[in-house]
């Protein structure tokens, strides 16, 4: 299991991340001197989700640009297939974003 805040590997039975102090969800840890408050947890999780989404969007943009460049040079009809593949990847990314948002 890995910390949702900093991705540090968590030791078995941990209630907080030894690297950043983030409380492990479902561990029974409570806000207080041992870690961030519930609001802090939500903010950290939201920040992490936003970072993940931004990274995914950047990767998809790079792939779309690469496919568009290739499609422009190949008039054999493969452009349509490339666009369909990219559209499918965007749909998958959208579903992943929905899963992340449900987890928040």
Features:
single chain; about 100 residues; mainly alpha; about 0% strand; elongated
Structure described in brief:
The chain is mainly alpha-helical and 104 residues long.
What does this structure look like?
It is a single chain. This protein is mainly alpha-helical. The protein is built from two helices and no strands. The longest helix is centred in the middle third of the chain and has 36 residues, at 38-73.
Radius of gyration: 20 Å
- Helix- and strand-based class? mainly alpha
Question: Could you tell me the number of beta strands?
Answer: 0
Percentage of β-strand residues: under 5%
Please, how many helices?
Answer: 2
- Low-pLDDT stretches: 30-34
Mean pLDDT, all residues: 75
CA-CA gap between termini? 18 Å
Q: Fraction of residues in helices?
A: 55-70%
Task: Tell me about the largest β-sheet.
Answer: none
Tertiary shape = elongated
Order of helices and strands: HH
